[in-house]
């Protein structure tokens, strides 16, 4: 499991090096919000925060890159690039650009700012971006640790958990997005942690303990204090807590589990719910949107619900698996194959799961379903007003990566039970070779199209040097994540409750 975590971390680093600073739409704003906190600018009202001089100057030095285009001819040598924090210039007084990231809670930005604060003023913009991306990578690796630990609890199999963890390589877009400066990284970590505690409460012999209740509440609160789209998780976790309470006959009679479940939800509300109440009180809405909702003066008459839904489905599939910027995307046939394979895996997992695990999986399936409904409804509102389809991004599914890991882990149990011993190694190898092949294909595609195979230019655009401050932060962080993750896998779960239809087969054979 540690090997999978290290491999994921290394591939995230590669993807981060592949993407030049500021070449995505949102990353300059994410960085600007971090710099504003470091400069004492706080968290202004939505759509009132300006783009700072340091960020605008960094964009200028980087050639103000649209899409994936980075003009290395105008890019200063690394030693001549400007700092971000504290930079001031009258050149940008009349720019008037707005940082829209303060529509989100400031949690992710505070974490990154606190991490880089000791040396932020000395960092050039390329070093700053590299360090901030490193924080995102560490959060994602930590989330993956929770995901594999959750799969291990539900399957009682190391092999299933490892193979489930390896499936993330099947999603190049996961690495493409989460290797950058983005609050989606904290969303992955927080939701994965909340799911681990929730599943732990369901499968552990003691039922819903105070530790589990506080763990669910703390991580759920952190989740909803990260992104508004994660509010859909609240009713799902409430259902999971109900299942945990129903699984504990002793506490069910006394009512202790129900009190703990209520405390968990109250704790989550105290940590993150207050932000959204504040928004309603101050601004009259949960969250402002940069997508545009006001109806244009010229009405859009080409409404077609069928065409809208088809375009939404197509865009969701492409941006979930591998819409890797500009003209760089996975082939349509591969995207269709991956989507159909996922649907087949879900069916196999539900078929092989026992009653309690199947119930958990059905509840977990509500997370991507509610997310799809939320972003589709918002996209329809904008489409109705403007004729444009916006906000349909597969990255909104990435916080639920634990569900994919658990699904593949359950598929492995079905495959293992249906196959003979002599074929198991070959079958397990397929769970590794196929995701690795897709990942390598995507990496080669991006290197060739984005950089035309010029690795030296790729490294020069960023700050990827072995002796950089960012590298030191990454190494220390990797050691910390590893140390924290070990206890998640070290605890024996052999005495847990029976949760899957394959438990009899699991007990008859040594744990893989």
Describe this entry's structure for a reader.
This protein is mainly alpha-helical. Helices cover 65% and strands 1% of the residues. The chain has 20 helices and two strands. It has a two-stranded antiparallel ribbon. Helix 1 runs antiparallel to helix 5, helix 2 packs across helix 4 and helix 14 runs antiparallel to helix 15. The C terminus is likely disordered.
> What is the averaged pLDDT score?
83
Strand content: under 5%
- Order of SSEs: HHEHEHHHHHHHHHHHHHHHHH
Structural class: mainly alpha
Unreliable runs: 489-512
Provide a brief overview of the structure:
The chain is mainly alpha-helical and 512 residues long. It has helices at 2-18, 27-38, 53-61, 107-116, 125-155, 158-166, 172-178, 184-203, 210-224, 233-246, 249-254, 256-283, 305-321, 332-352, 355-386, 401-418, 421-451, 455-461, 469-490, 503-508; strands at residues 49-50, 98-99. Helix 2 (27-38) packs across helix 4.
